[in-house]
Amino acid sequence: MAASATDADAGAGLRSEFLQVLLSRRRDLLVPLTVEQGSPVKDPMYQNPPSTMEANPMESCPSKEVENLREKLVEENFYLITELGEQGRVPVLLLKLDDPVPRRKPAIVFLHSSYKCKEWLRPLLEAYASKGYVCVAIDSRYHGERASNETTYIDALKSAWRNGDTMPFVFDTVWDLVKLGDYLGEREDVDPCRVGITGESLGGMHAWFAAFVDTRYSVVVPIIGVQGFRWAIDNNMWLARVNSIRPLFEEARIDLGKSELDTEVVERVWEKIAPGLDSQFDAPYSLPLLAPRPLLLLNGAEDPRCPISGLGEAISKTAKAYEESGCAEKFMFIAEPGVGHKITIDMVKAASEWFDRFLHA
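Structure tokens predicted for AB hydrolase-1 domain-containing protein (361 residues):
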């Protein structure tokens, strides 16, 4: 059964509503999209130094055997100017194979997790580039080149709570990804109909919401990033997520005169820094709107930040949306047994196979 016109209208309406939320904090900051040249980052900024173990799954990413691969890679470093102000300067790293015969290729946008940066993703970019993809990574807001010290991200979250003028948790970076979509659509080496997006943890949330609001992202693979925010509040399962950015919630607790963190604090913070995150834009309402675009959700079955028990409604509604669109095979949810909040070799492999299947490099 094909999706109804009513469903399509509802989807367009919710996307429009979300876009208005994004615009609400930047109406005086809008500028034409421009590009500035950059240079390779010699000393990437990590606000929480990663371990070697965290990098291992990315190093396992399937690739194509290319003799002297790194010599054949073309690297571009540049900045997209998406709005006025320091955070409107988006650092971009792009890798692709040098192609003697110019042609439009599929592209994939890769998004890092909290406290890391685009350079962290280089093993994935190189592996996918070997298979013919144009590979793109950005620093999310208040990360990488957009950070000045090891507390920049947390400081930005606290400022958003105090002042309500920015949305550094997920939404502001989604605006950058919409503008990145504009840019990629104009590149002569990118097929604008074949642009995928993926990310890990915070990057998985960025991928989820960017694909929700911007249908140009045609294949989507959020990794350990999708959760039910309202379910977590209603079922008192919010602590693991809160602990990942706890200084923000502690500041809110103090401001609200609370002796300890509770559900009200969590609700008030989300509404202030990410309006609608735990209501109209939550997973049960936004995920189904990705249909009929290929969507692979990868989670750990024991992930306390993204508990799979809180995804039942979202998965059910999303599966139904794909069935009604006549493309049930384009949606898959995998919860890896025994895995908490971490990316694994199997997740990296599954994501690679999904993109190869649906983007056809």
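The chain has one domain: 5-31+101-116+137-359.
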